[in-house]
Write a structure and sequence with these properties.
The protein is of the alpha/beta class. It contains eleven helices and six strands. Strand 5, helix 9 and strand 6 form a beta-alpha-beta unit. Helix 1 packs parallel to helix 11 and helix 2 packs across helix 3. The longest helix is centred in the middle third of the chain and has 13 residues.
Length: 248
């Protein structure tokens, strides 16, 4: 039997480095299971490639990065959760189960829950600046939108800014990722067990999207009261504990 592996999947405009301390925490919880952090093409180590404009295309790209895509346990955030759902749907024999964090689907939740109205000003600012090719500090806006605990953390922001300078994401890749996330829907006839985790204080995506997803899937559901959209960043210990308890 092939070895079990944990695959961590990030979301829009994020790469493996944005898992931060969470990856090492998870590896300590599961010392005998490799923890893999592939990048979506267009992000991080693969920033020289152009992102696919469909979730299925991203799924295929991640599968190609896994030497033997079998006996996988997926842990996925935001758009990464859409990839996990697509992966489980089209390749059910490859995935044992999944943990899906702060995600949403077009066919389940209205647009104003998938992207909270309070996030619109910053999103519009980022999009317009990209169209006009003006360099702005998008990482500061992303940190403000996705973290409730580290908003104002200048040291963390400096790291994110450095990563973006090292591996800049092209405008085409950013647009393609947004298009893929906005358009993704799924019949949600999954065979595998799923744990849905949401941040009630998420300022980017309404937590009710996760509640609806868990209800439709008849999946286990856990909620954090104060963390932001980037739950692995805001509460890595809590998240690792929840996953460890559910896996066992």
């Amino acid at each position: 039997m092939e070895q079990v592996r944990l695959v961590l999947i990030r979301g829009l405009l994020r790469d493996a480095r944005h898992w931060g301390d969470f990856k090492s925490l998870l590896q300590r919880r599961f010392p005998d299971i490799p923890v893999l952090t592939p990048d979506i093409p267009g992000n991080g180590r693969l920033n020289q490639l152009t992102s696919h404009d469909t979730i299925s295309g991203m799924t295929e790209a991640l599968r190609r990065q896994i030497a033997v895509p079998k006996n996988l346990r997926l842990i996925a955030v935001s758009m990464g959760g859409m990839i996990a759902i697509d992966w489980m749907t089209r390749y059910p024999d490859e995935v044992q189960y999944a943990v899906i964090i702060n995600t949403s689907l077009r066919n389940l939740s209205p647009f104003y829950q998938r992207l909270r109205w309070t996030a619109y000003p910053r999103i519009i600012k980022m999009v317009l600046a990209s169209i006009l090719q003006r360099k702005i500090d998008i990482e500061a806006d992303i940190l403000t939108l996705t973290s409730n605990r580290h908003n104002g953390d200048h040291e963390l922001l400096a790291y994110w800014q450095q990563w973006q300078q090292q591996h800049p994401i092209s405008l085409t890749s950013a647009i393609n990722q947004c298009r893929a996330a906005v358009r993704f829907s799924n019949a949600l006839q999954l065979q595998q067990p799923v744990l849905i985790i949401a941040s009630k204080a998420d300022r980017l995506v309404d937590y009710r999207c996760s509640v609806k997803l868990a209800r439709v899937l008849q999946a286990d559901y856990v909620q954090h009261a104060t963390a932001g959209h980037d739950l692995p960043l805001d509460e890595p210990e809590w998240l690792a504990n929840m996953i460890d308890a559910w896996f066992h």
